[in-house]
Amino acid sequence: MRRGLNFFILKKNIPLTVGILMLIMATGTAIFAPYVATHDPLKVKLSERLEPMSRNHFLGTDPWGRDILSRIIFGTRYSLVIGVVSIAISMLFGGILGVFGGYYSQSKLATMIVWITDITMSFPTLILGAMVAIIFGPGVFNTIIALAIAFFPRFIRLVRGTTLSMKEEVYILAARSVGMSDLRLLFIHLIPNIISPVVVMAVIWASDAISIEVALSFLGLGVSPPTPSWGTILQDNLSYFQMMPLAAIWPCLAVAWTVQSLNMVGDRFRDILDPKMR
Amino acid sequence: MKAYIFRSLIRTMIIMVVVMTIVFVALRLGPIDPAQYVLGEYATDETLRKLRETMELDHPIYVQYLHFVYRIIRGDFGTSFLNNLSVLSQLLDVLPYTLELLIGGILIGILVGVPPGIVAALKPNSIFDQMIRIFTLTWIAIPVFVTGIFLITIFSLKLNLLPAIGGGEHGELASHLLHLILPAFSCGFFMMASIARLIRASLLDVLTKDYIMTARSKGLRESVVILKHALRNSLLPLISFLGIYVNILLGSAVILEVIFTRPGIGRLIVESIKNGDFPMVQTIIMFYGGAVVIVNLLVDVAYCLVDPRIVYK
Question: Which residues have a Cβ under 8 Å from the Cβ of A254 and sit 6 or more positions away?
Protein backbone atom coordinates (compact mmCIF):
# COMPACT_ATOMS: atom_id res chain seq x y z
CA MET A 1 0.00 0.00 0.00
CA ARG A 2 2.69 2.48 1.00
CA ARG A 3 4.66 2.42 -2.23
CA GLY A 4 1.85 3.46 -4.52
CA LEU A 5 0.46 5.94 -2.04
CA ASN A 6 3.38 8.33 -1.71
CA PHE A 7 3.53 9.59 -5.26
CA PHE A 8 -0.22 9.84 -5.44
CA ILE A 9 -0.27 11.99 -2.32
CA LEU A 10 2.37 14.31 -3.73
CA LYS A 11 0.48 14.78 -6.97
CA LYS A 12 -2.79 15.64 -5.27
CA ASN A 13 -1.42 17.62 -2.36
CA ILE A 14 -0.04 20.93 -3.60
CA PRO A 15 0.98 22.36 -0.19
CA LEU A 16 2.92 19.20 0.61
CA THR A 17 4.75 19.29 -2.73
CA VAL A 18 5.51 22.99 -2.35
CA GLY A 19 6.68 22.43 1.22
CA ILE A 20 8.98 19.57 0.24
CA LEU A 21 10.45 21.59 -2.63
CA MET A 22 11.03 24.58 -0.33
CA LEU A 23 12.66 22.31 2.22
CA ILE A 24 14.89 20.71 -0.41
CA MET A 25 16.02 24.16 -1.54
CA ALA A 26 16.79 25.22 2.03
CA THR A 27 18.69 21.99 2.73
CA GLY A 28 20.56 22.30 -0.57
CA THR A 29 21.58 25.85 0.31
CA ALA A 30 22.83 24.63 3.67
CA ILE A 31 24.83 21.73 2.22
CA PHE A 32 26.34 23.61 -0.70
CA ALA A 33 26.76 26.91 1.16
CA PRO A 34 30.45 27.42 0.22
CA TYR A 35 29.58 27.01 -3.47
CA VAL A 36 26.43 29.15 -3.44
CA ALA A 37 27.79 32.04 -1.39
CA THR A 38 29.56 34.79 -3.28
CA HIS A 39 31.68 36.09 -0.42
CA ASP A 40 33.31 34.97 2.80
CA PRO A 41 30.56 35.43 5.44
CA LEU A 42 33.05 36.39 8.14
CA LYS A 43 35.28 38.78 6.19
CA VAL A 44 34.99 42.27 7.67
CA LYS A 45 35.62 45.10 5.21
CA LEU A 46 34.81 48.40 6.81
CA SER A 47 35.33 50.34 3.57
CA GLU A 48 32.27 48.59 2.14
CA ARG A 49 29.92 48.91 5.10
CA LEU A 50 26.15 49.38 4.64
CA GLU A 51 26.27 49.24 0.87
CA PRO A 52 22.92 48.96 -0.93
CA MET A 53 22.07 46.11 -3.26
CA SER A 54 24.50 45.89 -6.16
CA ARG A 55 26.01 43.51 -8.71
CA ASN A 56 28.83 42.66 -6.34
CA HIS A 57 26.73 42.36 -3.17
CA PHE A 58 23.32 41.10 -4.23
CA LEU A 59 21.65 41.99 -0.93
CA GLY A 60 24.10 44.68 0.11
CA THR A 61 26.47 44.65 3.06
CA ASP A 62 25.95 44.86 6.80
CA PRO A 63 27.38 47.39 9.31
CA TRP A 64 30.69 45.51 9.25
CA GLY A 65 30.95 45.42 5.48
CA ARG A 66 30.14 41.70 5.28
CA ASP A 67 28.06 40.39 2.40
CA ILE A 68 24.49 39.86 3.68
CA LEU A 69 23.52 37.20 1.15
CA SER A 70 26.54 35.06 1.97
CA ARG A 71 25.88 35.43 5.66
CA ILE A 72 22.27 34.35 5.23
CA ILE A 73 23.34 31.38 3.11
CA PHE A 74 25.80 30.21 5.76
CA GLY A 75 23.20 31.02 8.40
CA THR A 76 20.98 28.36 6.84
CA ARG A 77 23.54 25.79 7.95
CA TYR A 78 23.53 26.89 11.55
CA SER A 79 19.79 27.39 11.85
CA LEU A 80 18.85 24.10 10.18
CA VAL A 81 21.45 22.04 12.01
CA ILE A 82 20.63 23.58 15.39
CA GLY A 83 16.90 23.15 14.86
CA VAL A 84 17.02 19.59 13.58
CA VAL A 85 19.69 18.23 15.93
CA SER A 86 18.13 19.72 19.04
CA ILE A 87 14.73 18.31 18.12
CA ALA A 88 16.27 14.91 17.38
CA ILE A 89 17.98 14.81 20.78
CA SER A 90 14.81 15.99 22.46
CA MET A 91 12.71 13.41 20.61
CA LEU A 92 15.05 10.56 21.53
CA PHE A 93 15.21 11.26 25.26
CA GLY A 94 11.71 12.68 25.59
CA GLY A 95 10.40 9.68 23.67
CA ILE A 96 12.12 7.17 25.93
CA LEU A 97 10.85 8.85 29.10
CA GLY A 98 7.41 9.31 27.56
CA VAL A 99 7.06 5.65 26.57
CA PHE A 100 8.11 4.42 29.99
CA GLY A 101 6.00 7.06 31.72
CA GLY A 102 2.99 6.01 29.68
CA TYR A 103 3.51 2.27 29.80
CA TYR A 104 4.25 2.05 33.52
CA SER A 105 1.80 4.83 34.30
CA GLN A 106 1.21 3.60 37.86
CA SER A 107 4.82 3.72 38.98
CA LYS A 108 6.43 6.42 41.12
CA LEU A 109 8.83 7.27 38.31
CA ALA A 110 5.94 7.97 35.95
CA THR A 111 4.32 10.35 38.45
CA MET A 112 7.61 12.16 38.75
CA ILE A 113 7.94 12.44 34.99
CA VAL A 114 4.46 13.94 34.77
CA TRP A 115 5.36 16.44 37.47
CA ILE A 116 8.53 17.50 35.73
CA THR A 117 6.74 18.00 32.44
CA ASP A 118 3.93 19.92 34.11
CA ILE A 119 6.37 22.27 35.76
CA THR A 120 8.49 22.90 32.71
CA MET A 121 5.49 23.23 30.41
CA SER A 122 4.25 26.16 32.46
CA PHE A 123 7.03 28.34 31.04
CA PRO A 124 7.24 29.84 27.58
CA THR A 125 9.66 27.74 25.52
CA LEU A 126 11.69 30.84 24.72
CA ILE A 127 12.17 31.60 28.43
CA LEU A 128 13.05 27.98 29.12
CA GLY A 129 15.64 28.07 26.34
CA ALA A 130 16.99 31.38 27.63
CA MET A 131 17.28 29.99 31.16
CA VAL A 132 19.22 26.95 30.03
CA ALA A 133 21.29 29.09 27.67
CA ILE A 134 22.52 31.33 30.48
CA ILE A 135 23.44 28.36 32.60
CA PHE A 136 25.49 26.80 29.79
CA GLY A 137 26.63 30.05 28.17
CA PRO A 138 26.38 31.00 24.48
CA GLY A 139 27.65 29.00 21.51
CA VAL A 140 26.33 26.66 18.84
CA PHE A 141 26.63 23.47 20.88
CA ASN A 142 25.14 25.03 24.00
CA THR A 143 22.22 26.43 22.02
CA ILE A 144 21.48 22.93 20.77
CA ILE A 145 21.45 21.64 24.35
CA ALA A 146 19.30 24.55 25.51
CA LEU A 147 16.72 23.95 22.77
CA ALA A 148 16.76 20.19 23.36
CA ILE A 149 15.95 20.76 27.02
CA ALA A 150 13.33 23.38 26.17
CA PHE A 151 11.47 20.98 23.85
CA PHE A 152 11.99 17.94 26.05
CA PRO A 153 8.71 18.24 28.03
CA ARG A 154 6.62 18.61 24.87
CA PHE A 155 7.86 15.24 23.60
CA ILE A 156 7.37 13.55 26.95
CA ARG A 157 3.77 14.75 27.09
CA LEU A 158 3.03 13.79 23.48
CA VAL A 159 4.62 10.34 23.65
CA ARG A 160 3.18 9.61 27.07
CA GLY A 161 -0.32 10.50 25.91
CA THR A 162 -0.05 8.39 22.77
CA THR A 163 1.36 5.45 24.73
CA LEU A 164 -1.41 5.67 27.29
CA SER A 165 -4.11 5.40 24.64
CA MET A 166 -2.17 2.82 22.60
CA LYS A 167 -1.69 0.63 25.66
CA GLU A 168 -5.41 -0.16 25.74
CA GLU A 169 -5.48 -1.40 22.14
CA VAL A 170 -6.48 -5.00 21.60
CA TYR A 171 -3.29 -6.09 19.88
CA ILE A 172 -1.20 -4.93 22.83
CA LEU A 173 -3.45 -6.89 25.14
CA ALA A 174 -3.17 -9.90 22.83
CA ALA A 175 0.62 -9.69 22.75
CA ARG A 176 0.72 -9.45 26.50
CA SER A 177 -1.60 -12.38 27.02
CA VAL A 178 0.61 -14.51 24.80
CA GLY A 179 3.29 -13.88 27.37
CA MET A 180 5.48 -11.40 25.57
CA SER A 181 7.94 -9.59 27.80
CA ASP A 182 7.35 -5.90 28.43
CA LEU A 183 10.54 -4.77 26.73
CA ARG A 184 9.90 -6.87 23.62
CA LEU A 185 6.32 -5.63 23.46
CA LEU A 186 7.47 -2.04 23.71
CA PHE A 187 10.01 -2.33 20.94
CA ILE A 188 8.12 -4.60 18.57
CA HIS A 189 4.55 -3.38 18.91
CA LEU A 190 4.22 -0.12 20.76
CA ILE A 191 7.09 2.04 19.55
CA PRO A 192 6.66 1.29 15.82
CA ASN A 193 3.02 2.31 16.17
CA ILE A 194 3.57 5.63 17.89
CA ILE A 195 6.67 6.64 15.97
CA SER A 196 5.05 8.19 12.92
CA PRO A 197 2.81 10.74 14.67
CA VAL A 198 5.74 11.65 16.89
CA VAL A 199 8.05 12.19 13.93
CA VAL A 200 5.41 14.35 12.25
CA MET A 201 5.11 16.51 15.34
CA ALA A 202 8.91 16.63 15.48
CA VAL A 203 8.95 18.14 11.99
CA ILE A 204 6.48 20.83 13.06
CA TRP A 205 8.36 21.48 16.29
CA ALA A 206 11.63 21.72 14.35
CA SER A 207 10.16 24.85 12.81
CA ASP A 208 9.42 26.17 16.30
CA ALA A 209 12.95 25.26 17.37
CA ILE A 210 14.40 27.21 14.45
CA SER A 211 12.38 30.31 15.20
CA ILE A 212 13.30 30.09 18.87
CA GLU A 213 16.96 29.67 17.97
CA VAL A 214 16.72 32.82 15.84
CA ALA A 215 15.00 34.63 18.70
CA LEU A 216 17.65 33.49 21.22
CA SER A 217 20.54 34.45 18.94
CA PHE A 218 18.83 37.76 18.25
CA LEU A 219 18.59 38.44 21.97
CA GLY A 220 22.27 37.58 22.34
CA LEU A 221 21.62 34.38 24.28
CA GLY A 222 22.14 31.82 21.53
CA VAL A 223 24.84 31.63 18.87
CA SER A 224 27.53 34.23 19.58
CA PRO A 225 27.94 37.18 17.19
CA PRO A 226 30.58 36.61 14.53
CA THR A 227 28.92 33.30 13.64
CA PRO A 228 26.40 33.88 10.85
CA SER A 229 23.13 32.66 12.32
CA TRP A 230 19.92 34.32 11.15
CA GLY A 231 19.39 35.68 14.64
CA THR A 232 22.82 37.31 14.83
CA ILE A 233 22.42 38.70 11.30
CA LEU A 234 19.09 40.20 12.34
CA GLN A 235 20.68 41.70 15.44
CA ASP A 236 23.55 43.22 13.42
CA ASN A 237 21.28 44.70 10.80
CA LEU A 238 18.46 45.86 13.05
CA SER A 239 20.71 48.49 14.63
CA TYR A 240 20.79 50.25 11.25
CA PHE A 241 17.12 49.55 10.60
CA GLN A 242 16.18 53.14 9.77
CA MET A 243 18.92 53.46 7.17
CA MET A 244 18.48 50.07 5.56
CA PRO A 245 15.21 48.36 6.49
CA LEU A 246 15.70 45.75 3.79
CA ALA A 247 18.86 44.45 5.45
CA ALA A 248 16.76 43.33 8.44
CA ILE A 249 14.02 41.90 6.26
CA TRP A 250 16.21 39.42 4.36
CA PRO A 251 17.06 37.22 7.36
CA CYS A 252 13.36 37.39 8.34
CA LEU A 253 12.41 36.07 4.93
CA ALA A 254 14.91 33.24 5.32
CA VAL A 255 13.36 32.31 8.68
CA ALA A 256 9.86 32.53 7.26
CA TRP A 257 10.83 30.35 4.28
CA THR A 258 12.32 27.53 6.35
CA VAL A 259 9.76 27.60 9.14
CA GLN A 260 6.98 27.67 6.59
CA SER A 261 8.33 24.71 4.61
CA LEU A 262 8.77 22.54 7.71
CA ASN A 263 5.33 23.46 8.95
CA MET A 264 3.66 22.74 5.61
CA VAL A 265 5.29 19.33 5.33
CA GLY A 266 4.57 18.38 8.94
CA ASP A 267 1.03 19.68 8.82
CA ARG A 268 0.11 17.84 5.64
CA PHE A 269 1.62 14.60 6.88
CA ARG A 270 -0.38 14.95 10.06
CA ASP A 271 -3.52 15.26 7.96
CA ILE A 272 -2.56 12.21 5.95
CA LEU A 273 -1.91 10.15 9.07
CA ASP A 274 -5.05 11.36 10.79
CA PRO A 275 -7.84 11.96 8.28
CA LYS A 276 -10.19 13.06 11.05
CA MET A 277 -8.22 16.29 11.47
CA ARG A 278 -9.18 17.62 8.03
CA MET B 1 -15.55 23.43 42.49
CA LYS B 2 -14.17 25.22 45.54
CA ALA B 3 -12.25 22.12 46.54
CA TYR B 4 -10.87 21.88 43.01
CA ILE B 5 -9.65 25.49 43.06
CA PHE B 6 -8.18 25.02 46.51
CA ARG B 7 -6.27 21.93 45.47
CA SER B 8 -5.03 23.63 42.32
CA LEU B 9 -3.74 26.55 44.34
CA ILE B 10 -1.90 24.22 46.70
CA ARG B 11 -0.39 22.45 43.72
CA THR B 12 0.62 25.81 42.27
CA MET B 13 2.38 26.71 45.49
CA ILE B 14 4.32 23.44 45.47
CA ILE B 15 5.26 23.91 41.82
CA MET B 16 6.42 27.45 42.53
CA VAL B 17 8.61 26.30 45.40
CA VAL B 18 10.19 23.61 43.23
CA VAL B 19 10.74 26.05 40.35
CA MET B 20 12.16 28.66 42.67
CA THR B 21 14.63 26.16 44.09
CA ILE B 22 15.73 24.89 40.68
CA VAL B 23 16.22 28.39 39.30
CA PHE B 24 18.04 29.53 42.42
CA VAL B 25 20.48 26.64 42.40
CA ALA B 26 20.97 26.60 38.62
CA LEU B 27 21.81 30.31 38.48
CA ARG B 28 24.39 29.98 41.19
CA LEU B 29 25.99 26.85 39.81
CA GLY B 30 26.24 28.38 36.35
CA PRO B 31 29.29 30.20 35.00
CA ILE B 32 27.88 33.70 35.53
CA ASP B 33 29.54 35.95 38.09
CA PRO B 34 27.25 38.94 38.71
CA ALA B 35 29.98 40.90 40.47
CA GLN B 36 32.08 40.75 37.31
CA TYR B 37 29.12 42.06 35.30
CA VAL B 38 28.54 45.00 37.60
CA LEU B 39 32.18 46.03 37.94
CA GLY B 40 33.40 45.23 34.43
CA GLU B 41 36.56 43.52 33.23
CA TYR B 42 39.13 45.66 35.02
CA ALA B 43 37.85 45.14 38.54
CA THR B 44 40.41 44.08 41.12
CA ASP B 45 40.01 40.88 43.08
CA GLU B 46 39.52 42.89 46.27
CA THR B 47 36.54 44.90 44.96
CA LEU B 48 35.04 41.81 43.39
CA ARG B 49 35.25 39.99 46.69
CA LYS B 50 33.66 42.91 48.52
CA LEU B 51 30.80 43.18 46.05
CA ARG B 52 30.17 39.45 46.25
CA GLU B 53 29.95 39.87 50.00
CA THR B 54 27.27 42.56 49.69
CA MET B 55 25.44 40.39 47.15
CA GLU B 56 25.67 37.53 49.66
CA LEU B 57 27.22 35.31 47.01
CA ASP B 58 30.19 34.33 49.19
CA HIS B 59 28.13 32.14 51.52
CA PRO B 60 27.64 28.42 50.86
CA ILE B 61 24.66 27.85 48.60
CA TYR B 62 22.32 26.42 51.25
CA VAL B 63 22.87 29.43 53.49
CA GLN B 64 22.04 31.72 50.56
CA TYR B 65 18.95 29.67 49.86
CA LEU B 66 17.73 29.81 53.47
CA HIS B 67 18.19 33.58 53.51
CA PHE B 68 16.30 33.80 50.26
CA VAL B 69 13.39 31.69 51.48
CA TYR B 70 13.23 33.63 54.74
CA ARG B 71 12.94 36.90 52.83
CA ILE B 72 10.36 35.56 50.37
CA ILE B 73 8.16 34.44 53.25
CA ARG B 74 8.27 38.02 54.56
CA GLY B 75 7.27 39.24 51.09
CA ASP B 76 10.69 40.68 50.22
CA PHE B 77 11.83 39.64 46.76
CA GLY B 78 15.19 41.30 47.14
CA THR B 79 16.89 44.18 45.37
CA SER B 80 18.35 44.22 41.91
CA PHE B 81 22.13 43.66 41.71
CA LEU B 82 22.43 46.45 39.17
CA ASN B 83 20.67 49.44 40.68
CA ASN B 84 19.74 48.36 44.22
CA LEU B 85 16.05 49.09 43.57
CA SER B 86 13.38 46.72 44.78
CA VAL B 87 12.84 43.94 42.27
CA LEU B 88 9.11 43.80 42.89
CA SER B 89 8.52 47.50 42.26
CA GLN B 90 10.51 47.39 39.01
CA LEU B 91 8.46 44.41 37.90
CA LEU B 92 5.17 46.09 38.78
CA ASP B 93 6.27 49.24 36.91
CA VAL B 94 6.54 47.43 33.58
CA LEU B 95 3.77 44.89 34.13
CA PRO B 96 0.97 47.12 32.69
CA TYR B 97 2.84 47.41 29.39
CA THR B 98 3.07 43.65 29.00
CA LEU B 99 -0.57 43.21 29.99
CA GLU B 100 -1.61 45.82 27.42
CA LEU B 101 0.30 43.96 24.75
CA LEU B 102 -1.13 40.56 25.68
CA ILE B 103 -4.73 41.76 25.97
CA GLY B 104 -4.41 43.78 22.76
CA GLY B 105 -2.97 40.78 20.95
CA ILE B 106 -5.69 38.43 22.19
CA LEU B 107 -8.47 40.89 21.26
CA ILE B 108 -7.09 41.43 17.79
CA GLY B 109 -6.57 37.70 17.35
CA ILE B 110 -10.19 37.00 18.28
CA LEU B 111 -11.75 39.92 16.40
CA VAL B 112 -9.83 39.25 13.20
CA GLY B 113 -9.70 35.48 13.55
CA VAL B 114 -13.25 34.47 14.46
CA PRO B 115 -15.24 35.99 11.53
CA PRO B 116 -13.19 34.33 8.75
CA GLY B 117 -13.41 31.06 10.68
CA ILE B 118 -17.21 31.31 10.78
CA VAL B 119 -17.45 32.18 7.09
CA ALA B 120 -15.13 29.34 6.17
CA ALA B 121 -17.19 26.86 8.17
CA LEU B 122 -20.52 28.03 6.77
CA LYS B 123 -19.37 27.57 3.19
CA PRO B 124 -16.79 24.78 3.36
CA ASN B 125 -14.64 24.29 0.28
CA SER B 126 -15.90 27.50 -1.32
CA ILE B 127 -13.40 29.90 -2.86
CA PHE B 128 -13.48 31.99 0.30
CA ASP B 129 -12.73 28.94 2.41
CA GLN B 130 -9.81 28.06 0.15
CA MET B 131 -8.45 31.59 0.39
CA ILE B 132 -8.71 31.57 4.17
CA ARG B 133 -7.04 28.18 4.27
CA ILE B 134 -4.11 29.35 2.17
CA PHE B 135 -3.83 32.48 4.30
CA THR B 136 -3.89 30.62 7.59
CA LEU B 137 -1.47 28.04 6.27
CA THR B 138 1.03 30.73 5.30
CA TRP B 139 0.56 32.75 8.44
CA ILE B 140 0.34 30.09 11.12
CA ALA B 141 4.07 29.41 11.17
CA ILE B 142 5.51 32.88 10.68
CA PRO B 143 7.29 33.91 13.90
CA VAL B 144 6.04 37.12 15.58
CA PHE B 145 9.30 38.97 15.16
CA VAL B 146 9.12 38.54 11.39
CA THR B 147 5.61 40.05 11.35
CA GLY B 148 6.79 42.78 13.70
CA ILE B 149 9.71 43.80 11.50
CA PHE B 150 7.51 43.81 8.42
CA LEU B 151 4.89 45.97 10.12
CA ILE B 152 7.53 48.44 11.34
CA THR B 153 9.00 48.71 7.87
CA ILE B 154 5.65 49.34 6.22
CA PHE B 155 3.78 51.46 8.74
CA SER B 156 6.52 53.36 10.46
CA LEU B 157 9.43 53.64 8.07
CA LYS B 158 7.66 53.86 4.71
CA LEU B 159 4.25 55.33 5.55
CA ASN B 160 5.36 57.09 8.74
CA LEU B 161 1.95 56.53 10.30
CA LEU B 162 2.60 54.78 13.61
CA PRO B 163 5.35 54.93 16.21
CA ALA B 164 7.59 51.87 16.34
CA ILE B 165 9.61 52.56 19.46
CA GLY B 166 8.63 52.74 23.11
CA GLY B 167 5.47 52.10 25.08
CA GLY B 168 3.92 55.57 25.01
CA GLU B 169 3.95 58.51 27.41
CA HIS B 170 3.35 57.53 30.99
CA GLY B 171 -0.32 57.84 31.92
CA GLU B 172 -1.56 59.04 28.54
CA LEU B 173 -4.11 56.64 27.13
CA ALA B 174 -4.03 57.87 23.51
CA SER B 175 -0.27 57.65 23.31
CA HIS B 176 -0.33 54.19 24.90
CA LEU B 177 -2.87 52.95 22.38
CA LEU B 178 -0.97 54.45 19.46
CA HIS B 179 2.21 52.71 20.54
CA LEU B 180 0.31 49.51 21.12
CA ILE B 181 -1.10 49.11 17.60
CA LEU B 182 1.91 47.64 15.82
CA PRO B 183 3.10 45.21 18.51
CA ALA B 184 -0.45 44.10 19.28
CA PHE B 185 -1.11 43.43 15.63
CA SER B 186 2.12 41.42 15.32
CA CYS B 187 0.95 39.38 18.27
CA GLY B 188 -2.64 39.17 17.02
CA PHE B 189 -1.79 38.13 13.48
CA PHE B 190 0.09 35.20 14.89
CA MET B 191 -2.97 34.07 16.84
CA MET B 192 -5.48 34.94 14.18
CA ALA B 193 -4.50 32.11 11.87
CA SER B 194 -4.80 29.50 14.61
CA ILE B 195 -8.09 30.95 15.85
CA ALA B 196 -9.65 31.03 12.37
CA ARG B 197 -8.65 27.41 11.92
CA LEU B 198 -9.94 26.38 15.33
CA ILE B 199 -13.29 28.11 14.89
CA ARG B 200 -13.74 26.58 11.46
CA ALA B 201 -13.09 23.07 12.71
CA SER B 202 -15.23 23.44 15.82
CA LEU B 203 -18.16 25.15 14.04
CA LEU B 204 -18.13 22.49 11.31
CA ASP B 205 -18.29 19.89 14.04
CA VAL B 206 -21.13 21.61 15.90
CA LEU B 207 -23.18 22.10 12.73
CA THR B 208 -23.48 18.34 12.31
CA LYS B 209 -24.97 17.93 15.82
CA ASP B 210 -28.57 16.87 16.36
CA TYR B 211 -29.63 19.98 18.23
CA ILE B 212 -28.79 22.11 15.20
CA MET B 213 -31.07 19.95 13.11
CA THR B 214 -33.75 20.34 15.79
CA ALA B 215 -33.33 24.11 15.79
CA ARG B 216 -33.63 24.23 12.02
CA SER B 217 -36.65 21.93 11.94
CA LYS B 218 -38.35 24.14 14.53
CA GLY B 219 -38.31 26.74 11.77
CA LEU B 220 -35.85 29.10 13.42
CA ARG B 221 -34.21 31.64 11.18
CA GLU B 222 -30.81 30.53 9.93
CA SER B 223 -29.10 33.52 11.58
CA VAL B 224 -30.54 32.50 14.96
CA VAL B 225 -29.46 28.91 14.45
CA ILE B 226 -25.93 29.94 13.60
CA LEU B 227 -25.40 32.76 16.05
CA LYS B 228 -27.33 31.49 19.04
CA HIS B 229 -27.08 27.73 18.84
CA ALA B 230 -24.04 26.84 16.81
CA LEU B 231 -21.58 29.66 17.41
CA ARG B 232 -21.94 29.75 21.18
CA ASN B 233 -21.12 26.09 21.44
CA SER B 234 -18.30 26.29 18.95
CA LEU B 235 -16.61 29.01 21.00
CA LEU B 236 -15.92 26.57 23.84
CA PRO B 237 -12.64 25.26 22.44
CA LEU B 238 -11.48 28.86 22.07
CA ILE B 239 -11.36 29.20 25.86
CA SER B 240 -9.07 26.25 26.35
CA PHE B 241 -7.05 27.38 23.34
CA LEU B 242 -6.44 30.74 25.02
CA GLY B 243 -5.27 28.89 28.12
CA ILE B 244 -2.69 26.99 26.13
CA TYR B 245 -1.78 30.05 24.15
CA VAL B 246 -0.92 32.27 27.10
CA ASN B 247 2.37 30.44 27.26
CA ILE B 248 3.17 31.11 23.62
CA LEU B 249 1.98 34.71 23.95
CA LEU B 250 4.28 35.37 26.90
CA GLY B 251 7.17 34.04 24.81
CA SER B 252 6.13 36.22 21.87
CA ALA B 253 5.86 39.25 24.14
CA VAL B 254 9.53 38.86 25.08
CA ILE B 255 10.77 39.20 21.53
CA LEU B 256 8.21 41.84 20.53
CA GLU B 257 9.15 44.02 23.48
CA VAL B 258 12.78 43.86 22.43
CA ILE B 259 12.03 44.62 18.78
CA PHE B 260 9.67 47.49 19.55
CA THR B 261 11.87 48.62 22.50
CA ARG B 262 8.75 48.62 24.68
CA PRO B 263 9.11 48.45 28.43
CA GLY B 264 7.80 45.12 29.72
CA ILE B 265 8.45 41.95 31.63
CA GLY B 266 9.99 40.24 28.62
CA ARG B 267 12.59 42.91 28.00
CA LEU B 268 13.26 43.11 31.70
CA ILE B 269 14.08 39.41 31.94
CA VAL B 270 16.28 39.46 28.83
CA GLU B 271 18.25 42.39 30.20
CA SER B 272 18.55 40.85 33.65
CA ILE B 273 19.71 37.56 32.15
CA LYS B 274 22.38 39.38 30.17
CA ASN B 275 23.51 41.39 33.19
CA GLY B 276 23.53 38.49 35.62
CA ASP B 277 20.88 40.12 37.81
CA PHE B 278 19.93 37.00 39.77
CA PRO B 279 17.15 38.38 42.04
CA MET B 280 15.36 39.87 39.04
CA VAL B 281 15.62 36.67 36.99
CA GLN B 282 14.33 34.55 39.89
CA THR B 283 11.37 36.82 40.51
CA ILE B 284 10.34 37.05 36.86
CA ILE B 285 10.62 33.31 36.37
CA MET B 286 8.38 32.79 39.37
CA PHE B 287 6.00 35.36 37.96
CA TYR B 288 5.84 33.49 34.64
CA GLY B 289 5.20 30.17 36.31
CA GLY B 290 2.53 31.63 38.54
CA ALA B 291 0.86 33.54 35.71
CA VAL B 292 0.54 30.48 33.49
CA VAL B 293 -0.83 28.29 36.28
CA ILE B 294 -3.33 30.93 37.37
CA VAL B 295 -4.50 31.56 33.82
CA ASN B 296 -5.04 27.84 33.38
CA LEU B 297 -7.04 27.77 36.58
CA LEU B 298 -9.16 30.68 35.32
CA VAL B 299 -9.69 28.79 32.07
CA ASP B 300 -10.94 25.79 34.02
CA VAL B 301 -13.33 28.00 35.98
CA ALA B 302 -14.52 29.81 32.84
CA TYR B 303 -15.11 26.49 31.14
CA CYS B 304 -17.21 25.41 34.06
CA LEU B 305 -19.28 28.59 33.97
CA VAL B 306 -19.83 28.48 30.23
CA ASP B 307 -20.57 24.79 29.99
CA PRO B 308 -22.60 23.60 33.01
CA ARG B 309 -22.11 19.97 31.99
CA ILE B 310 -18.49 20.07 33.12
CA VAL B 311 -17.96 19.35 36.81
CA TYR B 312 -14.59 19.36 38.54
CA LYS B 313 -14.10 17.19 41.55
Answer: A72, A75, A76, A79, A230
